[in-house]
Amino acid sequence: MQRKKKIAGYDHPIASEKIYDVPAIEFARRIIERNPYDHIHIPILTDKTGINEFKLKVCFRELFNASPYQYRLRLCLEKAKVLPEETDDTIDQIAPKVGFDTYNGFSTALKKAYNIAPTEYRNRISARRASNCQ
Q: Within this chain, do residues 36 and 57 fall inside the same structural domain, yes or no?
């Protein structure tokens, strides 16, 4: 039976043998959050945090319920939902600003996460703005 311990700041208990890895995993999270739009690779994270790839992936998932890649993607998509409201940039202009190389990659990720295409999302926002102005 695996022993777990509750750590302040986390909703769920952490396996006792992973508690020593928490500072390195937190550092990895801060690196990702500092600039989520850059494609940070796992080997770079392991070099910067001093933790091996297996531990990084397993512990990150346990602490944040997502892999480092999924966590980064979630941050990018959260920003991607806000930019059409804040700017008049086209979807093609927004995609690279939120870490996507192509419109297709951006569109696919947004559809998968929120079940809506970027242009449809932009159209809904435009319609909301128009109805608020009347």
A: yes
Query: What sign does the dihedral 98-78-49-54 (CA atoms) show?
Result: negative
Q: Say how many domains are in the chain.
A: 2
Range of the domain at 47: 4-65
CA distances (Å), origin 119, targets 53, 60, 123:
37, 33, 6
- pTM here is 0.78
pLDDT of the chain, 134 residues: tens digit per residue: 456 656 656 666 666 556 678 889 999 999 999 989 888 899 999 999 999 999 899 889 988 889 999 999 999 999 888 887 788 888 888 899 898 988 899 889 989 988 988 888 888 877 777 777 66
Tokens of 79: 């920003």
Same domain, 84 and 35: no
**CA–CA gap between residue 132 and residue 134 (Å, rounded):** 6
- Residues 81, 124 within the same domain: yes
